[in-house]
Amino acid sequence: MKPPPFEYYAPTTVEEALVHLSEHGYDAKALAGGQSLIPTMNFRLAQPSVLVDLNNVSELFYIRPDENGGLRLGAMTRHFQVERSSLVSERTPLIYEAMPKIATTQIRSRGTFGGSIAHADPSAELGAISIALGGRFRLRNQTGERWVPANEFFIGMFTTLLEPDELLVEASFPNMPPRTGWALQEVARRPNDFALVGVAAVVTLDKKNQCQKARIVFLSVGDGPVEAHRAAETLTGQTLTPEIIHAAAETAATADIDPGSDIHASAEYRRRLAGVLTRRALDAAFERAKGSS
Amino acid sequence: MRHLFDVGVTVNGTRYERTVEPRLLLSDFLRHDLGLTGTHVGCEHGVCGSCTILFDGQPVRSCLMFAVQANGHEILTVEGLGTPEDLHPLQEAFWEAHSVQCGFCTPGLLMTLVPFLEENPNPNEGEIRAAISGNLCRCTGYQHIVDGVKLAAQKMSA
Q1: Could you tell me if A45 lies within 8 Å of chain B, comparing CB atoms?
Q2: Which fold has domain A180-291?
Q3: Are B9 and B73 part of one and the same domain?
């Protein structure tokens, strides 16, 4: 239960970190919070020969407002910092609401926003939430940088668009339009366990309180976050009556996802949870949207 | 050729300097290199909580950090919480409420609860149970632990 030997670098700038990642390519792993990487190394399921420790790269730790009313998070910002940030609760309340549901306090003392995104665990809340909020991620390598929308970033089980010589440096979220509501619903055996199924919903209403736009994104039902496009389409332009919400939840559970069975839950149970949780999330998001203008 | 790294770390108020392999876990460093065996090792993958320490004041799983990462930082372990002659009120409460059976989970619980009680001086049962959800106990069934926390809260606010 101890990792095999590895080379270790502790850069203090992004530039330095990129030099090491570029030099070692697939042999190197970036170490952020370590709350997912170190257990896998202790089990020897992952055996990187080079570790690039980002915990001294102070330029990656920040929570900033952007000029348009949105939010920018440095990739190394720790969950406990986000959990206590009034800026996060104002600008991206869905992220703020998710924090206590992410693992335990001890994990949140070290775990980072960027680390969670880059690790791309299918049960991670932050990936699904980033998509629901229309967020995007800034990736940097030695030659430049690129922005990737959250809904294009996750491409498979624990797999993202990040190249071996690239570092995720920032997550950026647009401002929430007026009359926007949000909710996160999940079910786990204990409050801090991995979710069996979870769903993030963001709903924006127009001036007549009809749904202008909805985004419904699941966690724990596939290889990564799964967006329920069909269900969201059924809501556009509609007045969100309980019947319409119920129908959308059914669509999400039957047509938009294809969950698998494992030792934690069967596919049928996951589908049932998906339907119930989507209905609750849409109800809550709708109520919040009506209440906010 | 294996590179070794210097670690300078303050633990329970005392400064230590050692040279270690990067793969040495912080939990093993505390126990073997510093002889502070109060911090326990249960799972080495971050689920049992018996290795919990305070790192710059934050509760952290020491099995999920490398000793090299502690360079320049401050750590509090259970040995720094109190002594048999001068127990921390939380330790006293655990004793009085029979929150300890085999004691394996106890240091991790104490280090988790110290910052919790600082931020939540008057927690209810639900909040206490949520706070300790990252610490597994095989002996007590948690009820007396919850009682110990309530008693500690009383003692600490008196």
Answers
A1: no
A2: Enolase-like; domain 1 (3.30.390)
A3: yes
